[in-house]
# Entry
Amino acid sequence: MPHNTSEAYTSTYNSEDGDISQCHHSSPISSFQTGDLNASTTADFVCHSAEKQSGSFRYVFLFCLAHFLHGVGATPLFTLGVSYIDENVKPSLSSLYLGVFYAFAIFGPAIGRTTDSVSMLSTCLHSAGLDIRHIPIAVYRLLTNGSYMLITLGMAVDGLIIAGASTFMSKYLERQFNVAPSRANVLIGCIMVPMAGIGTMFSGFLVQHFRLTCRKTLQLCVAMIVLTLIMSPMYLIYCDHDKLVGIETGYPDFEKMSARVDLNITEEPTLIAKCNSHCNCLASEFHPVCAEVDGQQIPFYSPCFAGCSDKYEPMRKEYRNCSCLPASMGAKRIVKNGYCESKCSGLVAFLVLFAPFIFCTFAVGVPLISVVLRTVDYAERSFALGIQWILVRVIGTIPAPVLFGWMFDVSCIKRHFDPCTGHDGSCYLYYNKLLADLFLAFSVVGQTVTLLFLVLALVLYSGSLKDDPITVERQEIDE
# Structure
């Protein structure tokens, strides 16, 4: 229970602390403002709280151990459990039960995320009825099974898309549509979890209700992948963010401007300006705030760099008396805490396409599992599922977060500088177009490769796939 035994979390920035980056008219400009990161007072302050923090490695180790043990216990559900369901229900109802099974496996992580372990192979050996001496032969038989390997590779590549979207889609909404983190998580959760569960159960119902043969089941999966390809251009819908004052654009001189605010300043952007020259601000504290002047939103690096002299008002979530806003605003010289909320209507269009995209992506899983169970010998089903989940994890879901994280890193424009370590930290500004192009390219390439594997399995091995007896009998009657 690391969260119960560890000390209370403390942040390097406290918006209610009057001694941190507060803008007072009598405060001199600190050496930190001019870029001197070796200033003793600044270094002492910035690193002071970090020095008091106790080592957290033991808590990380406990979390990793908990994930490992959870994987050991949960893995048999997806190997032995699937095989057990298929062997103990009517063949005509197998797909429906598997659809319900995987649907609940999708709804479950919405409450608590689940992980698989690399020990799944050893978990299912004895239940599969395989002696240790027969393992190399069984592995060789599976690896040389063309239909089994093509479908497994297709599921692995499809897993890249699923794992990446599940992990980073909320962050994608934050950066591409200027959505608050809490709202982004709610939107993704309310759309992704229901659509994934419904898609999984719906595909299982189709296979069961229409008694689809292996060939027709693969055709259904190919159709679903084609639909996801058609909806992939949804990534081209995004909203350009408001330019951050002091980083992407200079401070506007409201005194020389007309009624309309113009932020297209030609001078070199810098955090220090005449309006905040009396403030003692720290560039290591990125705490975005948003002002609205004449209907136009203006984001500032922090309340201090916006010249706000009054303390934070948590009830209203705003700072007052900000000198970098026009004096004509009077008492309304306030900035709101956090990023500027996007007024772009592209978010609605993106979510409208994202919902069926998730539906079709998750609808592929259950039909492919039902086909895989027909491509191997009856006694080796549990072992085959174990090998399949290892390949899906190693090729698909494990590298997916790394690839998606790389996309965000490449798209980064400005990173936060940590004066304690002297290294760049997390990114707070992204190039929206590049990020959208990378997501689109990754989605299209992944789905195309998945489609290629399934088409090859359909063309080369559809005639050798074993159908359930009831399905074959019904097909003969229909003919």
Remarks:
- The chain has a mean pLDDT of 75.
- The chain has two domains: 9-47+242-341, 65-234+362-478.
- The first helix runs from residue 2 to 5.
- The chain has 15 helices and six strands.
